[in-house]
Amino acid sequence: MELHDQSLRQLSKYLSQSQREKRELQEDVIAAEKALCRAARDSVVNYLQAVESSLEEVRGRVLSQTTPTKGDVTWHLPRMHLDVPDPEGLTGGPEVVICEGFVRSFAGVYEVVCSRLMNVQSELDSRNTLACVLKSELHNAGVSDGVRTHTAENVPACPPAVTATDPRGFFVGLHSPAIYYLERRSFSVVMVNFS
């Protein structure tokens, strides 16, 4: 009987120790899950801060130039780095996936807008150049044909490049009392002056 009581006490002691270890393991698992959630949240916050700082850098480059170039608007999208020691590569949960997807979508829209902006800027530059060439040809044709010509001060200036500070853009410098017509077939120049 005594042996039976002793083994019961040992089993009871072993059972209580096992239950205590089980509780400690459960608490460790909960603490580890909380730590992983904090790490994922911190990674998302760091990622969004990196995205914001890179966008601010691009914004600064664009605003510092009057006519931005392709290099000025290039945005290098930061990568998401999760600081968790998972050999299989923990994704960080649905919040991280949604956050990365949102930033990728925004980056795609940004690239399309920048591409169109560069195309519009290039087209404006080529039209400004064409306007300068046509004005020069018009002035030269007027001089060679004996048509009343303007002095250098009266010839409308070449339109300046469009800048963010000048809302009039392309039309600056095109004001003149004369209307010019250029016939394509014969390239003759006719000037009608309303002054």
UniProtKB/TrEMBL annotation:
Record organism: Denticeps clupeoides (denticle herring)
Regions annotated as coiled coil: 8-35
InterPro entries: CCDC171
Coiled coil listed as a keyword: yes
Keywords: Coiled coil
Name of the molecule in the record: Uncharacterized protein
Domain of life: Eukaryota
